[in-house]
Amino acid sequence: MPLILLMVKTYIKLRFSKDEKQKMRILAVQNRMGIGDMVIFLPFIEAISKKYDTPVSILVKESSKAIQFLKYNKTIDQIIILDRGNQIKNGKHDGIVGSFNLIKDLKKFNFEKIFIFNSSFRFNIIARTAGIKNIYQYPLFQKKNQHIINTAKKFLKKELGLEIESDPTILIDDKLIKHSKSKYKINNEEINILLGIGGSGPTKRIPAKTFIDFMNLATEKYKCKFFLATGKNIDEQKILHEILDTNLRDMCYPLDELNLNEILPIIKNCNISICNDSSFSHLSSGLGIKTIILMADTPLLYGNYSPRMFPIIPDGEKTVTHNTLGKNRINPRKIFEQLIKLLN
Question: Which CATH architecture best describes the domain 174-343?
Answer without folding.
Answer: 3-Layer(aba) Sandwich (3.40)
